């Protein structure tokens, strides 16, 4: 399975502009270029929480798919927003547990301008 192509061909990921930039055994990285239409603030471009969440969920799923080579629907995701995302965002995800039917992934989301950690997430995905 071409993981980058699989995730980037998802209509919602295409709409937001999510790009998977690196995928290897249990690790993935991705990127989203901020635009005015992804902002929650009319006066300043600041990532809507849903944009940050979608980036984390997509990159987290890619990390797990690199281990199981099949689509992995999200069961649950918890995210902590630590700072406003005022520019382009990048995410790094690592599989922390892979069981028979469920996989768990930790994701960090950063502002690309200064590497500020803007969110941390833990996703749980169905693998079997």
From TrEMBL:
Boundaries of every Thioesterase domain copy: 47-116
Any one Gene Ontology molecular-function term assigned to this protein's record: acyl-CoA hydrolase activity
Organism: Haloferax profundi
Highest taxon of source: Archaea
Entries under InterPro entries matching the protein: Acyl-CoA_thioesterase_PaaI, HotDog_dom_sf, PAAI_dom, Thioestr_dom
NCBIfam families: unchar_dom_1
Name of the protein in question: Thioesterase
Coiled coil: none
Keywords noted in UniProt: Hydrolase
């Amino acid at each position: 399975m071409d993981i980058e192509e699989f995730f980037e061909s998802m209509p919602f990921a295409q709409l937001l502009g999510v790009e998977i930039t690196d995928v290897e055994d249990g690790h993935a990285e991705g990127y989203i270029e901020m635009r005015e239409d992804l902002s929650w603030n009319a006066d300043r471009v600041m990532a809507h929480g849903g944009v940050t969440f979608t980036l984390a969920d997509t990159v987290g799923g890619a990390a797990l798919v690199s281990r199981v080579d099949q689509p992995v629907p999200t069961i649950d995701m918890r995210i902590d927003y630590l700072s406003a995302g005022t520019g382009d965002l990048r995410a790094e995800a690592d599989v922390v547990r892979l069981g028979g039917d469920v996989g768990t992934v930790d994701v960090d989301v950063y502002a690309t301008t200064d590497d500020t950690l803007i969110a941390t997430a833990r996703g749980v995905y169905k693998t079997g």
